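> example.struct
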């Protein structure tokens, strides 16, 4: 019933939007629609920098999922973060908030689900890709951007949306700015002389993104590198972590699973000598902080992340079962992924051996 009511409210605002007074178009106040998952939000940070470089006197507001908002609170290119709690929960209130914001332009980095809401808010310039709802997008968007012919990674896909602003050659390297207080707290927690600090993040939202051999690698990391291993994850991954750590010498392991916020996770990664992770938001955080990072890819191809960063290693094996080529509602002929959330064979992960991972660790640590 609540969903039906919200659709009626949204329809009212959409139908009455042309009747409301339109502001004169100009690029003084930007709204970025960035209600994506953690890793994608990290890869969107070049957009903020590019806009502020081109329009230094403008105001830049970003609509982002509430649970991720704290991660961006030190971004120097963002003037205001608007927490997003879901269209069903905040639809009419959000429309009113955006109307009062008097934005000159909106740029939707997402799959178009909020295009109607942005149209209803009366923002005069609305930029986005035409994705799942092509006919509706022709109404809701003023500037429909043609997708690139080849897929070159998510950061460049986002930056292409800035072409109507005269921005065509922006730096695509994601950047994050960790909390100094958080950094000091973890330095205190991990006081252990000159020992290496290696963060291991074995979990992932989908089971298909979880590499199954972390226990063997953690054992060898402690043995070969005399390192302190910090295991991380959210609360739902506590059992996974317990299974991995069972049988290991935990004197050299700190288990922080379920004990850190996303903001704290960034602070922790910023002081790590190396971060080992599946293809998750944590690996994107570590790369954006410039830390030595190893990412294990399974269903998704490494090309998703764009340009390889300094001190970054990506482990990936070719398998024949990646048969989907839709990214952000856009079809690309030169990219393949698997969208399964469960898989019996998990061949893309199991073909990556502990020795392959340990070799990359050795290369980054140069030991």
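> example.seq
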């Amino acid at each position: 019933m609540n969903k039906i009511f919200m659709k009626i409210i949204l329809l009212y605002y959409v139908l009455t939007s042309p009747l409301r007074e339109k502001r004169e178009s100009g690029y003084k106040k930007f709204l970025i629609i960035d209600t994506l998952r953690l890793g994608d939000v990290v890869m969107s940070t070049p957009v903020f920098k590019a806009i502020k470089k081109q329009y230094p006197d403008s105001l830049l507001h970003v609509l982002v999922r509430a649970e991720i908002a704290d991660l961006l609170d030190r971004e120097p290119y963002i003037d205001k973060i608007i927490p997003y709690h879901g269209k069903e929960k905040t639809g009419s209130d959000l429309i009113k908030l955006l109307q009062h914001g008097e934005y000159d332009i909106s740029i939707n980095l997402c799959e178009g689900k909020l295009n109607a809401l942005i149209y209803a808010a009366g923002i005069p310039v609305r930029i986005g890709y035409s994705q799942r709802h092509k006919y509706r997008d022709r109404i809701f968007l003023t500037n429909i951007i043609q997708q690139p012919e080849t897929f070159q990674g998510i950061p460049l896909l986002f930056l292409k949306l800035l072409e109507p602003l005269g921005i065509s050659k922006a730096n695509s390297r994601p950047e994050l700015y960790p909390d100094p207080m958080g950094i000091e707290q973890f330095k205190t927690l991990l006081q252990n002389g000159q020992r290496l600090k290696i963060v291991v993040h074995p979990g992932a939202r989908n089971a298909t993104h979880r590499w199954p051999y972390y226990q063997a690698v953690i054992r060898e990391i402690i043995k070969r590198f005399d390192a302190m291993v910090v295991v991380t994850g959210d609360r739902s991954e506590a059992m996974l972590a317990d299974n991995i750590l069972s049988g290991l010498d935990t004197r050299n392991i700190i288990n922080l699973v379920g004990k850190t916020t996303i903001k704290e996770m960034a602070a922790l990664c910023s002081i790590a000598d190396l971060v080992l992770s599946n293809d998750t938001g944590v690996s994107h955080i570590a790369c954006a902080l410039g830390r030595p990072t190893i990412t294990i890819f399974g269903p998704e191809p490494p090309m998703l992340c764009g340009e390889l960063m300094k001190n970054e290693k990506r482990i990936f094996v070719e398998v024949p079962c990646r048969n989907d080529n839709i990214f952000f509602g856009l079809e690309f002929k030169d990219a393949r992924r698997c969208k399964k959330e469960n898989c019996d064979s998990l061949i893309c992960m199991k073909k990556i051996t502990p020795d392959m991972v340990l070799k990359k660790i050795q290369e980054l640590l140069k030991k």
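> remarks
The domain at 180-365 is CATH 3.40.50.2000 (Rossmann fold).
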